[in-house]
Design goal:
It is built from 2 helices and 6 strands. By secondary structure, the chain is an alpha+beta fold. The strands form 2 sheets. Strands 3-4-5-6 form a 4-stranded antiparallel sheet, with no helix packed on it. The chain has a two-stranded antiparallel ribbon with strand order 1-2.
Length: about 220
């Protein structure tokens, strides 16, 4: 896995005055000239980060060293306990499936905008477009809500290992948080470890698909 470095800022003192100079790193490029994003990545370090920031943190984006040490201790304890198999902690699976980061993230929330890290209320317009989750085919029901299980269609799409959908598949989960980016001239492909899903994103400016063709991952264009 390659590591990408952004701009580095250097400061020096010259002739009794402080001068600062910005050194911009060269952006890695593919042989055909596109920015090279290829690599294997993981969001394991984010799995203990809440979606919304707890109100006591206000606009603070990172934990203190003491708070981070407590989070790391909790992750270490869970990882140790999960080595001994037992009843599933929740619907995600048996304990030995779970994966933990060696160095958890210090972020206080996955949401970074607005600055308080809280998801703002829906506008009236958005509320009028909100879809009843009980009407969304494939993402309701299943083995853990008491619904009858008379055939494969009675399990939801996640339980059938078909898809977690977007944006949900980006969110850190109990295991399989890896993803790989592969590029070719005119396309970017993103392969997700969980359920082995992939997105193929054209970069050639082609028109979107017609409304009659729907995809679980949408119709991305770059």
């Amino acid at each position: 896995m390659g590591y990408r470095f952004g701009a580095a800022v250097c400061a020096g003192v010259l002739a009794g005055s402080m001068l600062s100079a910005q050194v911009t790193a060269q952006v890695p490029r593919t042989p055909w000239g596109d920015p090279d994003l290829q690599g294997i990545y993981t969001t394991d370090a984010e799995r203990s980060v809440p979606m919304e920031r707890p109100e006591q943190f206000g606009e603070r984006t990172e934990l203190t060293p003491e708070e981070l040490a407590e989070r790391a201790g909790n992750e270490e304890r869970l990882a140790r306990d999960d080595k001994h198999d037992g009843p599933p902690r929740d619907e995600t699976g048996p304990k030995h499936w779970f994966e933990y980061a060696e160095r958890p993230s210090a972020r206080t929330s996955l949401v970074i905008d607005p600055p308080d890290g809280r998801i703002p209320p829906l506008t009236l317009g958005a509320q009028s477009r909100e879809i009843d989750p009980d009407s969304v085919l494939g993402f309701v029901g299943g083995a853990f809500d008491g619904s009858p299980l008379n055939g494969p269609e009675d399990f939801n799409l996640g339980e059938r290992c078909i898809t977690r959908g977007l944006p949900h598949t980006w969110f850190p989960s109990a295991y399989n948080n890896g993803f790989q980016i592969v590029q070719s001239p005119g396309h970017v492909a993103i392969l997700y470890e969980r359920l082995h899903e992939h997105r193929l994103i054209p970069l050639d400016g082609r028109a979107p698909l017609t409304q009659g063709i729907r995809q679980w991952f949408g119709d991305s264009r770059g």
